[in-house]
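Technical note accompanying the year-one report. For the benefit of new consortium partners, we illustrate the data format agreed upon in the data management plan: each record pairs a sequence with a structure-token string. No post-processing was applied to the example shown here.
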Amino acid sequence: MTQNTAAQLGTANDQPQDHGRRAALRAGTIGAAAAFVGAGRAQAKTENAAKEVSDKTAFITGGARGIGLAAAEELAKAGANIVLFDIATADVPHVQYPLSDDADLAGAKAAVEAHGVRCMTYKGDVRDGAA
């Protein structure tokens, strides 16, 4: 990384210059919860983001693992209650990789609740509008 690039992104001790949420996340100056809630306010502090989501509920699809679970945990750390929605089944035709299962969903619920918030889980398929 060049010195100029490092200066643009900032360091863990500095506020990032106004280069957007992604740069601030890369620099480690704000957490993911601040990026989600801040929506365009790259210099938002995690404490302010926590105030904005505290005692609110976030609905997260694909929440049993991966990016969905990571987002759920960051929002839970900021005080949001979480609803995890996931397909949690291996019975999906034409999918060539292992999907989440009931154990993943239960583990995700435990991980979220470890942050002192409430968490509900639902199994379903977002592709099925009728359901």
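Partners are asked to follow this layout when depositing records. The mean pLDDT is 77.
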